[in-house]
Amino acid sequence: MQLPPEGSAGQAAQLLLGDAVRVVSAFQNVAAHHLQEGHGIECDVLVCGNDKDARAEVVALVEDCGLRGFHAGPIANAAAAEALTSVIININRAFKCHAGIRITGLEPVSE
Fold first, then answer.
1. What total of structural domains would you count in the chain?
2. Among 1, 23, 60, 65, which residue carries the largest CB count within 10 Å?
3. Paired sense of beta strands 24-25 and 44-49, if any
4. Is residue 78 included in any domain, yes or no?
């Protein structure tokens, strides 16, 4: 696993663009295969960013895609989400699958 000196690609973007720009990091842990198919995605999306409203907008977009999005805190937390990517890639190679992450322990949302 190699993360950039800034801690994550999200943090690097935030540093490059400045605090006036609302940077949000998401979808690192969703297999490209799933995104290309556009259906049957059974994983969750961690959404990191310093601006709570910007995170909420991205969570809403994630949900519009039929996935569950989770506020995962400030952009500094993107390092943890990005680090999981290399773990998931290794799992995918070992099991010849397209694994993702799933947040458990939550009460079902009634519709």
1. 1
2. 23
3. antiparallel
4. yes
